[in-house]
Write a structure and sequence with these properties.
Blueprint (H helix, E strand, L loop, with lengths): L5 H20 L6 H8 L3 H7 L3 H24 L5 H12 L7 H13 L4 H22 L5 H24 L6 H24 L1
Length: 199
């Protein structure tokens, strides 16, 4: 009879092995056997918890999205003003952890497979909606509604674009430089709004 709590431990172990395997071999080339060997368990254990490697990728992305959600909450914890909330959100979505090679490989594998999986599309939709909602809500305290919507779209696109650029290039910018660029863009939006009011 399995020990109480073993399922949580095993799934965490297998998800970590999946992330490492994706980084080393790419998602298309990994097998359940590779993942099981890396995790130090039998393939039967893997199949006990997951149907196939696509199911394992989905579980991996759910875990990574949950980690990101917790990171956002952590960064927001000390923010006491709308401006601090925006800065905290930018820091959360460009956290140093998201630039770690294994994390980058897993996220890129996720995005590459989104067009081919309805379940991954749903995960991506939840991620996008949550990201846009958090920025939009904070920006509405600083900008008119229509501008807040556009500003949220611009900030999110800039975050995603800079992360991809930084992640795919050797000797590229780090999370701090990417964060500075997004903050400069955000400050420009605020300045434009102030100039419009004065005009």
């Amino acid at each position: 009879m399995p020990k109480v709590g073993m399922e949580v431990v095993r799934k965490k172990q297998l998800i970590e092995a999946t992330i490492s395997s994706i980084h080393e071999h790419g998602f298309s080339d990994i097998t359940i056997r590779m993942i099981s060997q890396r995790a130090g368990v039998s393939t039967g254990i893997v199949h006990h918890y997951f149907r196939d490697k696509n199911d394992l990728l989905q579980a991996t992305m759910r875990k990574m999205l949950e980690d990101l959600r917790l990171s956002v909450l952590y960064h927001l914890k000390s923010a006491s003003s709308p401006n601090e909330r925006i800065e905290a959100l930018i820091s959360a979505y460009l956290d140093v952890h998201l630039f770690e090679p294994e994390t980058v490989s897993a996220w890129l594998a996720f995005w590459a497979h989104v067009p081919h999986s309805d379940r991954l599309k749903r995960l991506q939709r939840v991620y996008e909606q949550r990201q846009m909602s958090t920025f939009r809500h904070a920006l509405k305290n600083l900008l008119p509604d229509a501008q807040a919507e556009k500003a949220a779209c611009g900030i999110v696109a800039l975050i995603d674009g800079l992360w991809i650029r930084a992640s795919l290039q050797e000797n590229s910018m780090g999370c701090e430089e990417a964060r500075d660029i997004v903050l400069q863009y955000y400050e420009m939006l605020l300045q434009q709004n102030n100039d419009t009011k004065l005009g």
